[in-house]
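User: Kynureninase. Structure?
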Amino acid sequence: MTDFSQTRALFHLPDSITYLDGNSLGPLPLAARDRVARMMGEEWGNMLIGGWNQAGWYTQPRRVGDRIAGLIGAGPGQVVMGDTLSIKVYQALSAALSLRPERRVILSDSGNFPSDLYVAQGIARSRDADLRVVAPGEVAGMIGPEVAVLMLTEVDYRTGRRHDMAALTARAHENGVLTLWDLAHSAGAVDVDLLGVGADFAVGCTYKYLNGGPGAPAFIWVNPRHAERAQPSLQGWMGHAAPFDFDRDYQPAAGIERMRVGTPPVIALTALDAALDVWDGVDMAALRARSITLGQRFIAGVEARCPQLELHSPRDPARRGSQVSFRHASAFAVMQALIANGVIGDFRAPDVLRFGFAPLYNGIEDVDRAVDTLAMVLGSAMWQRAEFHRRGDVT
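Assistant: Predicted structure:
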């Protein structure tokens, strides 16, 4: 059984802060700070350009990808790191569309992260395809023989609603449709089994529940049955079969390696690699059970003491990820007042208070303090103060 008091001790968590925003940015793993300092001094500092071979920088995207593979139900050699999540969405979606050239419809839902939809809009425009966006509950009924790709974020970033990946993938395949799953709010938060459900493509970021740090690189997975046929439209130097031959014409590398684009972010990958050490020995079933316990306790506490708030997440924990959202007409100001009192969650427009639960470092005491503080902020009308209504560049 995983001892979550031990995993909590592996993070830098500022005194007097209750941090419930790991679904936006995970806190600093202590090992990452030390590992990056060592890499910069011993590798970059002393090896200079020799670090690409001597320190294995060039193979980092594969090695770190293998570590993430174990958290998402993928196999060795099937995941590669690099670039941003939007770029990986672009690569996966364009490759999937090319595998279904006779079809022109991309199906997604209104709970998908806007950036994914922006990427899909651009691809649809350039390929004369049709992006259809429906309500989350309508997705299954809209899967038909005209659809090329079903593109969904498994866990809705606003509500925490969780799609049934197995059922939707099966329905898609019955209709000859390929699936692309965004695991940004799934990896490290819920049990994912990509090979088990037979998904086709998956992508995800690593700065949320995987604690890789701000701007940490994204990952991409391609089912082995597609790996040698998938052709990324965004073709880069590192995805070439022989990058250091400097051929003028692109020849895709074998398998997932072709999904590499540019030079890997070595410092960021070093931080992520250290962050993934925290997961060694973590039982995902125990983590998920703990997540449900925390979420249910939070919902019960808030509903008992904060009647001004409306639950915006599924009540059934099996139907949501590791976050809970409530609605309030002045959610932004309420959240700013909460943060000022040492409880950090986040706000999503137009009226959502969002709280993430990461059992690696969150416990019952965090839930109870968050409920107490939220009740105080609402009961005292503290959120009405002018300073809590001023918005910065990032909300």
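The CA atoms of residues 104 and 127 lie 8 Å apart. The mean pLDDT is 97.
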